[in-house]
Amino acid sequence: MSNALEKVKEEFLLVIPPTLYFFVSLHIVALIRSLMLKGHGIEPTSVMSIAVAALILGKAVLIADMLPMINRFPHRPLVFNVAWKTFIYVIVAGIIHYLERLYDAAREAGGVAAGNAQLLHEMVWPHFWAIQVLLFWLVVTYCAFHELARVVGHERVKRIFFGPMSPPAAAAS
Asked: What integer best gives the mean pLDDT of the chain?
């Protein structure tokens, strides 16, 4: 049982950084979307739905990182893996973004097909693409830092950003 508990703890600790990043990022997206739609009578996204989306994206990143195809360029400059991962994550984020809108439209229209037709007709496409551009930039930033941490080492990145986590071994001697 302790092995299973250790695995759950390990998974939990791994999911925290991407989940926090996407939690903050999705709140920024929701704020921008809310400001763009102010006066249109569309309700802003709730904190709970953002938290759920952040958890889903955080876990999706961990699952994607386990796939052999995700690290296609391990021995090339980081920009290759960053671009590849960004491409995959942006596609997934775009699908999730569209499905979020489709869910609301399907509830209103009384079905998925009717909701999709309504969504395609009523969606403000410049707003949709503006959010996609923002999501693209947030994902590029995440992928760049994630790849840099993978190569440099997570502990070293923590020390660089937050200062020494513990006294260096050489100084203790």
From this structure: 81
Q: Is the dihedral of CA 92, 95, 98, 103 positive or negative?
A: negative
Per the CB < 8 A criterion, the answer to whether 129 and 97 are in contact is no
Pair of tokens at residue 93: 């984020």
DSSP 8-state symbol, 165: S
The residue whose two tokens read 């802003």 is: 44
Which structure tokens are listed for 46? 């709730």
3-state secondary structure of 155: helix
**Residue 34 in tokens:** 């809310």
- If pLDDT is split at 50, 70 and 90, which confidence band does 169 have? low
- pTM for this prediction: 0.69
**Cα angle, residue 137 at apex, residues 134 and 139 outer, rounded to 5°:** 110
Q: From CA 54, how far away is CA 116, in angstroms rounded?
A: 24
Q: Give the burial string for 112-137 (b: 16+ CB within 10 Å, else e).
A: eeebbebbeeeeeeeebeebbeebbe
> From CA 62, how far away is CA 162, in angstroms rounded?
24
Q: What is the 8-class DSSP label of residue 45? A: P
The per-residue pLDDT for range 33-65, each reduced to its tens digit, is: 778 777 665 566 677 777 877 877 777 777 777
